[in-house]
Every structure is written in structure tokens, then in C-alpha cells.
Design brief:
Layout lengths: L1 H16 L4 H10 L6 H4 L7 E6 L2 E2 L3 E2 L6 H10 L4 E5 L9 H10 L4 E4 L5 H9 L4 E5 L5 H13 L3 E6 L2 H10 L3 E5 L12 H5 L8 E5 L5 H9 L4 E4 L1 H4 L3 H8 L3
Parallel strand pairs: 1-4, 1-10, 4-5, 5-6, 6-7, 7-8, 8-9, 9-10
Antiparallel strand pairs: 2-3
Helix pairs in contact: 2-6, 4-5, 6-7
Bound molecules: indole-3-glycerol phosphate.
């Protein structure tokens, strides 16, 4: 469940911190070339935009794809027209790593999202140091004042935050942060239940000018159409891409 995933991610960050100190990771973050403008890349347009995810496994489904070369997969996502790429860096259940993110950064020039369970400033600096342009903050995992602190740090580092919600109350909290890029995850990260109609129920409550992201549960082009007709500007897709020919699948999605 969500608390365990977050606790595990914090233990792993603590371990890395023994090798790379907070001061050092901050220095590396500030030495990076500036972050790409993800809000521009994901701005509403005539067709739906896709954030394509590098995802080997998940706690709800187990192994999805071996992905020996994340950079090669990301290159085909970019070639196929993905507007941004999400790289899962959580190690325990999603079998990702920061190294995956670094490799992908070398291979593509579209905005990159570090997808992980972020709960301390160290992880935000790490994301930027590894080349991320965006970070994920999950409202259900964070207390508001702490989330604001992480949000503000990411913004100061030039990154964009994708704020993930799973209810109307969480959406309010995302809006209170000042979030401009807001996601609704169809999957409840505590029960792993999927609700593909949740986005549709929340879509009217997004502030005007915000970018609406529908996350999870896409099986095929009909699911993209469903999210799009409910008002999604962007859809975040993992499993359907890693278990198919990503170029073919993306081409069909981007017609919507
Ligand atoms: O593989 P899917 O069902 O297309 O889902 C992708 C993405 O939305 C999902 O991986 C995700 C959404 N929010 C998260 C938070 C943490 C880990 C993973 C996620």
C-alpha cells in the first residue's frame, strides 16, 4: 500500500545519501542544464498528448516487461510522438532505478518525469541531478505543508510538478498548492482498485488554465477516447505501451 511504498522509497533514499550527501546532490542538481518546459510540452492542443511510461513491473500486476534497455524504449516513445516520458525509479515493487532515468536522459530531449514516491527534499534534488524535468507528488501520501515545501523546491529548481489526486478532496489540495499540472490516477494506490470513470467525475473541478492528466488503466484506443471525451489534455500510459509495439500503439493513440 501507499504508506509502505513511501516508507520503502525513503529507506532507499537514505541509503543513497550515505554515498552522495545532501550537499553534494544539491550541487549536482544546480549544475544541471536548465529543466525543459514541461507545461509548454503538455499544453492543451487539438489532439490528446501522451506521457509514455518506462515501467517494468507494478505491485498490482507483478512483472510487465523486462526492459533491458530503457533508453531504447524511451527513444521509440519520443520517435512515436510522446510529449513527455515518465520513468519509474522506485526499486522495490516497480523494479526501476535512478540509473534508468539517467540513461533515458542521455537518449531523449523531451521532458522527463521522475515517477517515484517522493517524500523528502533529497529525492527532489536527486531527480533534478539525474536530469528530470518533472517530479510526481502524490497528494494521498503527503501532509499539506510538507507537500507545499516539496512543491516549492521542485519549482525553484525549474521543474514542473505533476500533482496526483484520487478524489475531490485531494483535487482541492492540489489546487491549494498552486498546481498547474494535475493528474487523476484511476488506480487507488492503497487498494490498487481501478476506477476508469473517476477522471470524468472530477474533470469539472479542475481550475481553468490547468492541464488535466488522466493516469492509469489504458488498455486500448477506446480508453484514450473515453478520457479525451471526458476532458483529458494528457493521458499517462504505462502497461499498454510496454506490452505492445510502442510505435504502433502510440500512433493509434495520437490520432485521438
Ligand atoms: O500502467 P498504466 O495502468 O498505464 O499506469 C501508468 C501510470 O499511470 C501508473 O504507473 C502510475 C500512476 N501513478 C503512479 C504513482 C506511482 C507509481 C505508478 C503510478
Amino acid at each position: 500500500m501507499l504508506a509502505d511504498l513511501t516508507a520503502g522509497a525513503l529507506v532507499d533514499a537514505q541509503r543513497r545519501r550515505e554515498t552522495v550527501s545532501l550537499n553534494e546532490v544539491e550541487r549536482l542538481a544546480l549544475a544541471q542544464i536548465p529543466a525543459l518546459d514541461a507545461l509548454a510540452a503538455l499544453a492543451p492542443s487539438e489532439h490528446v498528448k501522451i506521457i509514455a511510461e518506462v515501467k517494468r513491473a507494478s505491485p498490482s500486476k507483478g512483472s510487465l516487461a523486462s526492459i533491458v534497455d530503457p533508453a531504447a524504449l524511451a527513444s521509440s516513445y519520443a520517435a512515436g510522438g510522446a510529449s513527455a516520458i515518465s520513468v519509474l525509479t522506485e526499486e522495490r515493487k516497480f523494479l526501476g532505478s535512478l540509473d534508468d532515468l539517467r540513461q533515458v536522459r542521455q537518449a531523449v530531449s523531451v521532458p522527463l518525469l521522475r515517477k517515484d514516491f517522493m517524500a523528502e527534499t533529497y529525492q527532489v534534488f536527486e531527480a533534478r541531478a539525474a536530469g528530470a524535468d518533472l517530479v510526481l507528488l502524490i497528494v494521498a501520501a503527503l501532509e499539506q505543508a510538507h507537500m507545499q515545501e516539496l512543491y516549492d523546491l521542485a519549482t525553484q529548481l525549474g521543474m514542473t510538478v505533476l500533482v496526483e489526486t484520487h478524489s475531490g478532496d485531494e483535487l482541492e489540495r492540489a489546487i491549494d498548492l498552486g498546481a498547474q499540472l494535475i493528474g487523476v490516477n484511476a488506480r487507488n494506490l492503497s487498494t490498487f482498485e481501478l476506477d476508469r470513470d473517476l477522471f470524468e467525475r472530477l474533470t469539472d473541478r479542475f481550475p481553468s488554465g490547468s492541464i488535466r492528466v488522466a493516469e492509469s488503466g489504458v488498455r486500448n484506443v477506446d480508453d484514450i477516447r473515453h478520457y479525451r471525451s471526458a476532458g483529458a489534455d494528457v493521458v499517462l500510459v504505462g502497461e499498454a505501451l510496454v506490452t505492445s509495439d510502442p510505435l504502433v500503439t502510440l500512433a493509434s493513440f495520437l490520432e485521438i
